[in-house]
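Q: For a teaching session next week I want to show students how multiple molecules come together into a single three-dimensional assembly. I've collected the sequence lines for a complex. Could you give me the predicted structure tokens for the whole thing so I can convert them for display?
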Amino acid sequence: MSRVNTSRALLLLRQARRPGRLGWTDILAYGYLALGVVLMFGPVLWLVLSSLKTPAALLEFPPSFLPLTQKTISVPGHAQPLELHRVRLPDGSVKELAQVRRIGIQATMIDPASPGGPVIRVPIEAREPVREVAFAWSNYTEPLKQFAFGRYFANSLVVTIVATLITLLINSMAAYALAIYEFRGRNAALLMVIGTLMIPITIVLVPVFLVVTQLGLNNSLWAVILPGAATPTGVFLLRQYMLTLPRDLIEAARMDKASEWQIYSRIVMPLTLPALAVLAIFSIMWRWNEFLWPLAVLTKSEVYTLQIGLNAFQGELQTQWHYLLAMTVMTLAPVALVFVFLQRFITTGIANTGMK
Amino acid sequence: MSETGPPPRAIPRESLASRLIQAVAGLLDRPMAWIQRAVGGRGMAYVFLAPNILFFGLFVFLPIGINMAMSLTGGTNLFLSERPFVGTDHYRSLMQCGSYLDPASCREDHFWKGVSNTLKFTLFQMVAMVGTALVTALVLNRKIRGRGFFRAVYFFPVLLSPVVVALIWKWILQRDGLLNGAITLVGGEKILFFVEPGWAMFWAVFVSVWAHMGFYTLILLAGLQAIPADLYEAAEMDGTKPMRVLTRITLPLLWPNLVVVLVLVLIKAVQTFDEVFVLTGGGPGTATLMVVQYIYETAFANQVQNFGLAAAASMLLGAVLFALTMLQLWIARRKAA
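A: Of course. Below is the structure for the complete assembly, covering every listed component.
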């Protein structure tokens, strides 16, 4: 920390020496960052804007930036609201008129200000639709009714919460054993934990499927929750943290006749909360976003998680981008919220552990 | 956000989380006391270790053994007792090739197409990923305003799910998408990005770099911030040119971190599946089919589920990953020494 403070002080000194001077490298740096903002945020912004467009607006090419729809107006004497157009009249003036009907290349318009007035016939090239920004919220509400999107959301929520709780419990217990006790086989156990780092699910896809089938867990959420519950990274992270706790505390508790379980759960766990929080955030991220294993093991749509459901939709709904985009935004939203509130935890956690 | 961000605060012991732990733990007090009476205080180490080791055994170590057995047996049945022994048949049919340079001449042409695509992907992705992460880390390490904001901008896609990432880009790259809109606006012709093999591979690499670059940037940034500031001070006193500072101070001192990132990227790239699978589906044809997709489809998605062949292919992939992880551990040890 002191190193950072000195270097910051030096920076301040340097800035004081030549105030406000921007070198060419600074300009390049800010240019790069500006490009980065567009390239990183742009696609997500585009997704969100697009998800609020009506199907008709999505078909438009080239696409408009904002979600626009044809503005309509209610005119007395007409049951349906009429489309509003900006029309260039033969005398050269431009007026906003409501379209009554269109036959071929001829459009019949009336002036909404004087509904009883004469109809005006114009060629369709002379008119241009008046459009306004309108958000198609039905893209968001319809999938909840029409598809089992709510079900998938709930499944993902259950998987994420239950799996994270199990991971926190069994990883912290193992970390406690490896950090506090001297026992025969400790090195072998540590080696085992390192060994599992080398065996990602991509390698054991088929046999884990066999194990899960043998356990009778096929097409239940447990099939997704259990296989990844014990994580080597979690054990390492928590053990590293527990090694820094003062041993006297544990010895003192033993003197007071506390059981080993009580020492673990009442003394060590509360002191390990910062590390547990980091692991919890990671676990939530892993579980919410997990794809390959659930894809392999979940074949019934009632147990689909959000990611698998979304992937299935993108196969089926090729022509219904408006629903697909809205569902993508809904899948992304919880992660975005977590990031906004816990950004500092996540970035320092990654910088400290080098894992994700 | 400030320069480095303070370390996460210790949470006060009476916090909600802590009280929750106490309440739940209280339920287990009595059974655990009985167990301790049975195994003794030191024996409790094994009790604490047991659940985690049981999970590892069941879902990692046992499967490795089963995988071996699966790869040596045939048939379409999942259960080992129902599978006839076929020896190294699966490995032999995987390796049976007219010429290893031409996937089409192989018996399992999709496997070799996957190998060749994965190699290509890995090569391009490593260069692009490490290059952009390095440049971004160097820029973020300068005294710029709003560094925390910019760091977050580059980092946030790391948290997005592969399906979301792929759909975001699929929407932009589709025939009537934003990018083709921009191209026609400047007078170009629409490009069918997912119909032309070259473009499909380009976007597969691009999208995966877009999604994961922030993670590697963070690691490199941590490395850059560990370089002593007085070195830069001294260089400035001597009036050293920025380019020379970069090649003589920054890059040599960052080198160990760069190697770590390089190997991490390599290990991840070899296992590439999800983003590319959702983005291109392995297409057009098999132009972006990766090894992991081949394994997944052979075992789960094809009409005839060939578990043995998939197991054999994943054993081969496992051997490659094992070698790469050994390389990683060796480098980490050398770095520590």
